[in-house]
Amino acid sequence: MLKRGGIMAKVKNLTMRGCDKKPITFDIFFNESLMPQPVIIYAHGFNGFKDWGNFDLIADQFLASGFAFIKFNFSYNGTSPEQPEHFVDLAAFGENNYTRQLDDLKCIIDWIYNPFNPYRSALAIDKIGLIGHSMGGGISIIKTAEDRRIKSLITWAAIDQCKTPWGNWSREQLKEWKHEGVAYYINGRTRQQMPLNYQLYEDFLTNQEHLDILKAANQIKVPWLICHGTEDINVPVTQAYNLKKGNANAALFTISTDHVFGRRHPWNSITQPFAMQEVLNRNILFFKQHLGTQ
Length: 294
Prior knowledge:
β8 and β9 form a beta hairpin. The protein is built from 9 helices and 11 strands. Belongs to the AB hydrolase superfamily. FUS2 hydrolase family.
């Protein structure tokens, strides 16, 4: 669906082929009179999706500041193109892993560069910025280290190891996981039992070197802003300090807030909570400094 407001275009729920040819559902926001614009990509976190917390409001702020904005659902995140805000495909969720997410993010960047992309003229392909939240932050760090097409990075509450969600499990829990082939956890919002197939851990073991976030952090040469809430109980702020230690050139911004910067889903307000707005203000200034705008 295309919504137009003056010169602003917002195209929702497009699809492209992602990992294993599963569909990636994505949105693109751009200004029809500013061609081309620096483009910002947003990668959501574990148990998340592109529209969590009315993310269109965030996209609108970047759009108003002169950026095109793309947000997407990882192909195995458990949603579907028909229901992009609901976990209706738990079989896919159970088969999600870090390698597949890296492949999906590559698909998004490849699409931006594709000369047959119908929105290509709106996108400044040499000015791509990336935002990743939580697990998506870890994915974004690895991808930025290996893909020179990304010119600037911002992470929100990013993980420093690819061990979500088993990082604190005991040996006994890991043994049971391997024996059963699947573990479950309760989604705190929907109360669904979300499956975690053992292949997630096997993918990590097979690709440990590639999935070393701190190693990737050290290899990042482009401007990077690390944002983290000091009251985050899901991904403690110590992980932000670890990332900063891994890359002395990265900028660090901390604020007294939680893992999602004061948001929740659904979000019914037309404004952002204070912490999220502070993060957004700094993000927009950071990207303007390092990517520029038209």
